[in-house]
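Teaching note: in complex prediction, the entire set of molecules is handled at once rather than each chain in isolation. The prompt given to students was simply: 'Predict the structure of this complex.' The entities are:
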Amino acid sequence: MKFSNHLIIFSTIFLGFWLDNSLNPLTINFFLELNFGFLIFSYWVFAMPEKLQSSAALFYGLVIDLFFSNAIGFNMLFFVATSYVIHLYVFRFRIFSYFQLAVFFSGSSTFYIACKYLLLSPYNYSYVILLFSFLVNAVLWVAIYIIMRTFRRSIFSNL
Amino acid sequence: MARSTPTYTPVRNYAIGFFLSVILLFSDISYGTFTPLRGYVNASTLYAQMISSEILENISNIFHSFKKNRSLLNENKELKEQIFKIRTKEFIERKNSEVKIEIINFQKDLMSSFYNNDIDIYKIASVDLRNYLCCSTHRIFLQNINNVSAEKNIPVYAGGSFVGQTKDSYLGFTEVILLSDTSHVLPIKSNSFYCDARGKGKPMLISCMLDQNNENVKIQIGDAVYTSGLGGIFFKNVEIGFVSAINTVSINGIEVLITLKTNPLEETYYGMISKETDEI
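The expected output is the structure of the full assembly:
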């Protein structure tokens, strides 16, 4: 894959994390943590597993860590692990329904949030946040899936 | 039919990536290995934001330059900023004067050289809102109007009280660790107790643990809390907040929750003294 394609994919992930960064200070008052960035990354790996491999996940994670995280390595770790799981089961996911996909990706996103709190901010760990985030991120996944698929087809029609 | 689906990358690469990430994460969480790197990235981002906002401001100024009241608005804005600066400066000068009076009693000849010209006023550049409202890390970045970089561990004032202390400087920006950050400890006192209060990781909250069996400890909700000056960084006897809750956490222990006086989100100007002070 060309460098420019990587740049486009990374820009969407970066935009997702920027949205999280801007919206979460508002939504956290309602015990809700959005996870656009992670879901967008998951979508790209799910949609183009042969193009996004471990090195891409590692590099994307590093840059996201530099700009948005409180600890270098956190997003790298989750991006690599998520990428591996998606690669392993990508063809099974293809026959999943929207509901099943939403549950899996929202569950992954909730696990990411839980680990973030446990590792970086244990005093603020809350099951209410995890529950609400799971429900909302499941809905978000469907929206992201549809929007990103349209975007991918218009940009990467040759891939 | 195959039981497992083919993968596109060998497991070895993922394993290497996984262990590399774990090592980096562990070293950063445990030893803060990449804290300076993150600080420089944050400072660079702030510069980029400032430049872009300045460009936007300039463009909007061009459009507004034809309006008659433009000069009045600017004057009003400048006057407001001056008032904020004077208020912050006045508080620091008042605290300095108190310290000065005590010093006079011991060393009159040092009076003239004490701090008069060392008060710096900083304007807020960025608040890490994402972490401030949800997580343990409570930091702000300040920009010195006179381009003077601050030393480490200098107390920072705003809104008539302390809000934190300087942590580091990156590319002209000063990182301030707020009192409510979980890694910040502030020695405090009230009428009946002394303790080291740690940030709660929640906005404007710090707490300390006390022995419930100590008969000398008589705390009531609403009691004013002051700095004790024992840490060697903050002046003593500055009111920083009040007791907002008392929770029993074990058979012998109670947790005293203290709500801070100053909300960093409402302040624009912050003051600090260039030199460290001796405790009195």
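Point out the following to students. The interface with chain A takes residues 4-5, 7-9, 11, 13-14, 16-18, 20-29, 33-34, 37-38, 41, 45, 129-137, 182, 200-202 of chain B (CB under 8 Å). The helical segments of chain B are 11-31, 35-64, 70-106, 129-132.
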